[in-house]
Amino acid sequence: MRLLVYRYVIEAGVNEMMRDYGFLGILLAFLLLAFFFLAMPACAEQSWDVQTVDENALGLGNGYCPIAVNSNNVPSIAYTSSNSSAALVMYAGWNSSLGGFSTQRITTGYATDIMLDPQNSPVILCGSGGLQYVGWNGTGWTFQKVDDGNFGTIALDSTEKPHVGYISGNIVKYASWTGSNWTTQTIDTYSILPSLTPQVYLDIDSTDKPYIMYFMSPDLKLATLENSGWNIQNVSLPDTIGDVGNMVLDSKGFPRFIYLVYSVSEIKYASWNGFNWKTETAVSGFPMENVGFLALDSLDYPHISFVSGQKLMYAGWTGAEWSIQTVYADLPVQGPAYMAVDSNRVPHMSFRANPPSEGLFGRFNYMMYAAATEPVPLSLPSVFPLLLAVAAVIIGAVIVVITYVWKKKMS
């Protein structure tokens, strides 16, 4: 009986309000609904600023060109150039007065990794008579030999001491700076010499514990340094791994990485949640020339650079889906392409392109840089549009009722 009374009151009230001022309430409700939907970030194509950093980057052979951004969101790149007789380790730093990069020759050899210390000074790992740790002291470059080796990655701990994960011959090794010298440890040994592009990646968590991921096909391994020594575990995934990209730690200290499944030509994104590995497809439907490079933004959202069909491509998580875009296609792109994301969630990429005069297998490449002109758009999960629509209708109904009551009092 009470429900019938409520129904009668509501129907009578609505009919009377509609008679008093027509469709004003409905119009207000739909205007509010439109406002909410228009205010939602759209997942649109981004625009990219692309520049040539150096026209004499090394072509065949070493293609490492790592990029980093400092606390002011300014990019730096380490790469390998070449003259008529030798490969050269180069540093490119952003020069705001030029609106582009200034380059410096560091030494002979090849670059393998770069990062920036808390003072925004570059720290570079390069191969030059063994692995060399190179730092900028404000006026020049300082050099320390870490160990014999042919590829490595670097990270700084909370006291700014460097740590290196690297390959020396067929041995996976770890080196750390004590303050006066480098100490080295053997982690694992390949049964055969690794390929020309060895895969070993290092990161350090907030407690200064090092994590080293390396690929011994068909096994992917993750090593962590415990009190008793190195804890090595096989990473169990539901796919047959064809190639592995870099590993990074998220804000909780959990590892994340990307890998390539050749059989279906897909880049998969894997993340550890503290209990197990979660995997998802980030990129599919594109011919894959390499696995790409992963970076996380301030929200722990992943961003991936990769090369497909000799085009530079980008895949970024928006919060609800993967946004995949072509960044550069003017010249054939030669991988790998590297990725960094600044504090504004703007992606920056470094890569090599083949100039027309050299062709695909020429000695020289262009060293290139690309950055988005705005932060990556965010998408709200699918439940939020429905909640916003409901909220808009409720607010519209409240406005209708208030307007009706006010009009009654004034009459």
Describe the structure.
By secondary structure, the protein is α+β, with helices and mostly antiparallel strands. The chain folds into two domains: 67 residues; 325 residues, Neuraminidase (6 Propeller), CATH 2.120.10. It has three helices and 28 strands. The strands form seven sheets. The chain has a four-stranded antiparallel sheet with strand order 1-28-27-26, with no helix packed on it. Strands 2-3-4-5 form a four-stranded antiparallel sheet, with no helix packed on it. A four-stranded antiparallel sheet has the order 6-7-8-9, with no helix packed on it. Strand 19 and strand 20 form a beta hairpin. The protein is globular, with a radius of gyration of 27 Å.
| CATH top level class name of the largest domain | Mainly Beta
CATH superfamily of the largest domain: Fucose-specific lectin
Structural domain tally: 2
CATH architecture call of the largest domain: 6 Propeller
